[in-house]
């Protein structure tokens, strides 16, 4: 099944959002695909596309400095993280209490 370019971009945005929410933790491909509920191979292809666009950094070593044999951890690149962070500070999401007050003005 072939997905439209628009849908691939939306899924890529979801990937970036998940990595931003978990920053500075680096997530494996399997963790990202589980979060989005998509096939690992499909997500892996999107991750490599985002890496080629310099949106992501692929980490191929563990904390001890040993190379992963078949796995890759993913993290947002510095400029992309800064852009997301700036956008989040400009448009903060309301807390639960603020949302409840918007829905029910008597609170």
Instruction: Give the biggest beta sheet.
Output: 3 strands, antiparallel
CATH fold field value of the domain at 5-62 and 69-77: Arc Repressor Mutant, subunit A
Q: Which descriptor suits the 3D outline?
A: globular
Number of strands: 3
The total of helices stands at 5
The CATH homologous superfamily of the domain at 5-62 and 69-77 corresponds to Winged helix-like DNA-binding domain superfamily/Winged helix DNA-binding domain
What is the strand arrangement across the widest sheet? 1-3-2
Q: What is the top-level CATH class of the domain at 5-62 and 69-77?
A: Mainly Alpha
Under the CATH scheme, the architecture of the domain at 5-62 and 69-77 is: Orthogonal Bundle
Report how far apart the termini are. Answer: 49 Å
Order of helices and strands: HEHHEEHH
How confident overall, as mean pLDDT?
83
DSSP strand (E) fraction?
5-15%
What is the radius of gyration computed over CA atoms, rounded to a whole number of angstroms?
Answer: 17 Å
Catalogue the unreliable spans: none
- Structural class call reads mainly alpha
Distinctive features:
107 residues; mainly alpha; Arc Repressor Mutant, subunit A; globular
